[in-house]
Amino acid sequence: MRPRNHHVLAMLVAGCGLTHCGSSAPPAPSAPEPPPRELEAANPPPVAPERAMRVEGQLGSIEPGAVDAVFDQALEALQRCHSARVRQIRALSGDVKLMLRIGEDGRARYVYVEETSLGDHLTEQCLVRVLSETTWPRPSGGEAEVRKSFGFAAPANARSPVAWTADDLKETFGPKQVKIRSCRAGVTGMFNVTAYVTSGPPAPEASGATSKARHKPPRKRQVAAKHGKKSNLGAGHIVAVGIAPPGREGAPAIDCLVEALKEIPMPDPGPRGAKVTWSL
């Protein structure tokens, strides 16, 4: 509300003229009323304190240097994940890219393997577990996503496996496709698989078959192999396999797919073994 001119109001109540009142001198003219904008500038309205706005689903930010420092602290534990398995798989090597969602409390909401050429689910599980149990810098403005790649080398004295392609496996799957589809549980997109194949039947603890079937020799069938050679289907098996899902929603299917793939008879890769990558 604008303030009124109190001098003018007093004159009207007393019945005085606009030029004089009795013999007394006319009152001094009052200052002109300032225009509305000048009033607002002189008496600004109270400003309510601003409230921080947050859009649901918006990703926050996290200081990269602080994140790198945490990864450096976790590096020794991550290396132990690889060294523990390289005793069983001497040629174990490759790259793993992990995706993390960090909550505002500094804890990992989830971690999963986004890409991998390592080829060992047990090592990849270990990496996920280490980073899931790590405390991270608290992001600002909401949860933050972090991606990090690691490279692992085989021991210097390890023999490199023969490099297979997906064409070398085209005769192997057959009826196992039914179980693979069941493992996918409707997840769309491609699962990228890297596996190590070795000669001989799988060890009992590596097979998902019953104890009676474990001692049954695998069925062998002659198939064409690389370079025109013959190889016995069933004379080899997958000793280790790693899988990158098409997205986080596919991560729960990996355990089932690993077991299904290890049951599939493989061609004999020879004494060096083989490493192969394909999509399913």
UniProtKB/TrEMBL annotation:
Residues 23-49, 199-230 are annotated as: Disordered. It comes from the Bacteria. PROSITE patterns: PROKAR_LIPOPROTEIN. SUPFAM superfamilies: TolA/TonB C-terminal domain (SSF74653). Residues 212-230 have a biased composition (Basic residues). This is AgmX/PglI C-terminal domain-containing protein. It comes from Pendulispora brunnea.
